[in-house]
Write a structure and sequence with these properties.
Distance between the termini: 11 Å
Structural class: mainly alpha
Oligomer: single chain
Shape: globular
Length: 169
């Protein structure tokens, strides 16, 4: 079982890699980075065209009024479009614009180039170990994406995430 120190070190390294990769990719692309909350909304809408603002709030675990503000800012920036649902005119459906899709693709190109260069700078065993960890990081992402339960509550029946033993304390 992992120690608290190992978990903390892993989490810190993962966060720092994400932060550096995001900032350097945006700098390389010649753009200022969007706030992280806007990026989360933009990527979710990109992956789920036609999603409602209410569903965005639910999936991101944030307040609907916060999502409304983020959507408004992204719409004003020309990155999101809002369409009324033809079946229920009260519901607004979200989609990314051509500008957003181009921005996402441009960022992905720069991120991939930065990752490739950084991996190439590592010794072969380290590079192989990091690349071999990708499926395990996918599993970790999926475990983290599961429902969050309050600390001290009982695991939900049939929830594989809830079956994970607690960390050493």
């Amino acid at each position: 079982m992992a120690t608290n120190e190992q978990v903390a070190r892993f989490g810190a390294a993962l966060g720092e890699v994400h932060r550096l990769l995001r900032r350097r990719a945006m700098a390389r692309a010649g753009r200022d980075p969007l706030p992280e909350a806007q990026v989360e909304v933009l990527l979710l809408v990109h992956q789920t065209p036609g999603i409602s603002g209410k569903e965005v709030a639910r999936r991101l675990g944030t307040a609907p009024n916060t999502v409304s503000t983020l959507v408004r800012d992204l719409t004003d920036a020309g990155l999101l479009a809002r369409d009324r649902d033809p079946a229920d005119r009260r519901v607004v459906r979200l989609r990314t614009t051509d500008a957003a899709r181009a921005r996402i693709a441009h960022y992905a190109t720069h991120r991939a180039a930065l990752l490739a260069a950084a991996l190439d700078a590592l010794d072969p065993p380290a590079r192989a170990a990091i690349l071999a960890a990708a499926p395990h990081l996918d599993a970790l992402r999926d475990a983290l994406a599961g429902p969050v339960r309050p600390e001290g509550s009982e695991p939900a029946a049939g929830n594989p995430v809830a079956a994970v033993p607690p960390l050493d304390t």
